[in-house]
Amino acid sequence: MINEEWQKRIDEFNTWDNDMIIPGKLTNDGAHNVWIEETRNPRGKRRKKYAEPKFKVDVMSLETAKNLRQKKEVIEENADTESRPPGEGIKAENDEIAVDFVDAEEVDGGAKNEEKTPQETRLMTLREVFDELYDSYYALKFKAKKKALLTAMTPYFDTRKRTVEFVEENLLRRRHNNGARYLRALRKCCLNRFNYFVTFTYDDEKMDREQFKKKLKAYLKNKVNRDNWKYFGVWEGWDGKKRLHFHALMYIPDGTMPGELVEMTSYNTSKKRKQTVIANTEFNEKFGRSSVEEIIVYEQDKAYNYVLKYLNKGGKSMVSKNCPTFIKGYVQKSQLVFPMNVEHKYFMNPQAEVIMLTGEITRVDEERPQEALPNATTCN
């Protein structure tokens, strides 16, 4: 249903001349070309960021707060629950969870530390303290997470009211940031149209966790430079609670797949049963185990969502340098079809023509947007 404000934008859009030039950037929502109009201050001036004051934080007390031991049933109930749709507002919709947190005095971060023995300290802002605690409580449900944060942040404020205001404000900030990160990642996926979903797992007999991180990163970097591979992936098990493995969405050009794809049977520890997977012989030889699946166009959303859900669980992402989020340039109004129900966004022609910063024109087919990237001015 078109609301009054949206209707005003449509009426204004219809008055524009077809030769009107509009600066901005092109992205893809998985089905359509979408143009995002440039709205920055033309002078390029930005508001200066407020420099938050730093103070000494007792490292031991901070680590104690980060490593609170919850009851076994709480951890089991909270496992894999941080999967709300990104950008969703904070709602107290989960049932209250009883968690045995230590008292505020026991998680004193240095603000009220009266111990006589000298303690190791770090210079941190309140926001940095909050972010470290938030990441350590990521697997908890919302109410349990908020309760833990309130307990841990109490020593840094003189009143309960200020503690609550600070925690609520920063919970909103983190939820907004997580939603924005998810959206950027989804745009990368839709614009680059990856053709393989690959999982890498290391073998203890070949390497340890740290060696696996370094060797995999170096291996993929070499493939990007030599064979023009692209990848966007998320590490699972980064916090050490599970075996580390890397879920990657990859674009592997024809003729550049190394080794051979073979069918193998392995034991899935999470599902507790054997399963048959397609593995790559070179990946297995270098790292341990692998799983390779070709992404079918009409099922690409499943592959994208499977990998991106780990971003909502606090997973660390890794992306190749040639994997942009947007194609930057200018378009004529004639290339825009209809305003979206979001200000400064428009649906574009299926084969839109984008004027590059160099003056050249690039045609972007919404079904194969990745083909326009080598000739386009891109941005992340």
Mind telling me the C-alpha Rg? Answer: 25 Å
Number of helices: 9
N-C termini distance = 33 Å
- Secondary-structure element order, N to C: HEEEHHEHHHEHEEEEHEHEEEEEEE
Order of strands, main sheet, comes to: 13-14-2-1-12-17
Low-confidence stretches: 70-116
Classification by helices and strands: alpha+beta
Describe the model.
The chain contains 9 helices and 17 strands. Helix content is 31%, strand content 25%. The chain is an alpha+beta fold and 380 residues long. Residues 70-116 have low confidence and may be disordered. The protein has helices spanning 4-15, 59-66, 72-78, 126-136, 142-153, 160-192, 209-227, 281-286, 300-308, and strands at residues 21-28, 33-37, 55-58, 121-124, 196-202, 230-236, 245-251, 261-268, 273-280, 288-294, 316-319, 326-332, 336-339, 345-348, 351-355, 361-365, 378-379. It has 3 domains: 4-43 and 325-379, no CATH class; 55-180, no CATH class; 195-294. The strands form 5 sheets. Strands 13-14-2-1-12-17 form a 6-stranded antiparallel β-sheet.
Summarize the structure.
The chain is of the alpha+beta class and 380 residues long. The chain has helices at residues 4-15, 59-66, 72-78, 126-136, 142-153, 160-192, 209-227, 281-286, 300-308, and strands at residues 21-28, 33-37, 55-58, 121-124, 196-202, 230-236, 245-251, 261-268, 273-280, 288-294, 316-319, 326-332, 336-339, 345-348, 351-355, 361-365, 378-379.
Can you give keywords for this protein?
380 residues; alpha+beta; 3 domains; 6-stranded antiparallel beta sheet; 31% helix; flat
What is this structure's SSE topology?
Blueprint: H1 4-15, E1 21-28, E2 33-37, E3 55-58, H2 59-66, H3 72-78, E4 121-124, H4 126-136, H5 142-153, H6 160-192, E5 196-202, H7 209-227, E6 230-236, E7 245-251, E8 261-268, E9 273-280, H8 281-286, E10 288-294, H9 300-308, E11 316-319, E12 326-332, E13 336-339, E14 345-348, E15 351-355, E16 361-365, E17 378-379
Antiparallel strand pairs: 1-2, 1-12, 2-14, 3-4, 5-7, 5-10, 6-7, 6-11, 8-9, 12-17, 13-14, 15-16
